[in-house]
Task: inverse folding
């Protein structure tokens, strides 16, 4: 695991389990989104923020607003992957991430995506400004 404070890029390991694959033993395309979600959650945790605490204490949550993925090479059962997350842009109520899924060992880029995450008011589900304390942490790694 790599801290975003080191390079601006966070990395999280993911092992491909049998349940992640299709009948051909290749990662089912939608599961790359799950891997990326895990990496963004762990990125946020590495900055000292838990999603449930943000909802309970600050009344916000994050939801995916837009996704664009490129599937480049297959990942297969039992591969160890590294999933990266790096902020490429931010607004008052949104974060844009560039994420990659790479196979450990040979570094093959399996999947790349741009994901926009919106900050929402947990009650109204309307856009909400990202809290200043979180933005301060993001500014340290952006």
Result:
């Amino acid at each position: 695991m790599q801290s975003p404070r080191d390079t601006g890029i966070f990395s999280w390991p993911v092992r491909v389990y049998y349940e992640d694959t299709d009948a051909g033993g290749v990662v089912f395309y939608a599961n790359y989104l799950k891997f990326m979600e895990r990496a963004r959650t762990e990125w946020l945790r590495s900055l000292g923020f838990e999603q449930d605490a943000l909802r309970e204490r600050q009344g916000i949550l994050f939801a995916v607003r837009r996704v664009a993925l490129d599937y480049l090479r297959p990942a297969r059962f039992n591969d160890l992957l590294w999933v990266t997350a790096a902020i490429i842009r931010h607004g008052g109520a949104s974060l844009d991430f560039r994420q990659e899924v790479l196979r450990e060992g040979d570094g093959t880029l399996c999947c790349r995506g741009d994901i926009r995450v919106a900050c929402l008011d947990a009650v109204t589900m309307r856009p909400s400004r990202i809290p200043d304390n979180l933005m301060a942490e993001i500014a340290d790694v952006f």
Remarks:
- The mean pLDDT is 94.
